[in-house]
Amino acid sequence: MKTLLTIVAFFFVTLIFAQTVIVSDDPSYTAGATSAVLDVKSTNKGFLLPRVADTTAVSSPTAGLMIYDTTNKKVWLYYNNQWNTFLNNGSGSNGITINADGTFILNGSATTWDDLRVSPDAVKAGANVTPLWADFANNIQLWHFENAKIQSVTFLVQMPHNWKEGTTIYPHVHWAPQVTGTGNVEWQFEYTWANLGTIFGSPITIVSSTSLAFLGGPEAKKVLITPFPSTGVGIDATGKTLSSMMVCRLTRNGTATNDTYAGDAAFLGFDFHFEINSFGSSQEYIK
What we know:
mainly beta, about 290 residues
């Protein structure tokens, strides 16, 4: 009798492996998808994943394994030797949230970074002595901030709709020494920042200098960068929102004790590193 049952069981298992298994509440659905080993079909029900406390509850997971995490309210898929989630409902720290209106929000380590750029041709002469508009290379002209002078340019920036509101921004100037030399260049960045419907306050000044030797040598026309106030330290943006405006001024104080480079500093551009957590805003003036 045991031998007979074993033969029947073997035949049954072989039959299952030889065709698509269909789970359906529709009696007319009998063919199934030929490319699927398991075809689940229903007119009014869903497919319920295994529910576990968290990913640590599963021992020795296999690539392709999928679970629902009841603690963090996430769907996890195991691949590349780790658990991964690509969507969440906002309760987790990393991933993508889909809001009720269909917009996406990037959370935690899923956020990205970009430059909010100010081109040299978008600036205007400042209140101090205007930099020299002169040849940089092969009749290509740029602003030259000259040695032993105080020269400045002004510009405006508007925070974009994909910015993660309230997060730190990191301003910096890109420039190049016009001639070979050594020493420091002292830059000053002034700004006043206001949200839509609010009043601009008194300007804040940040002073930062760059040593040519520190940045790899005194070669002429080498691309350099000076952060404000220093690398990894930016401007606190607590309370600031999308479309807020900054009125800015960039100055080289060539008369400062700390400015010891004897050549011109060619202005290549100014930009702000900012964090992105969406593809834009869900409303015209509201994130």
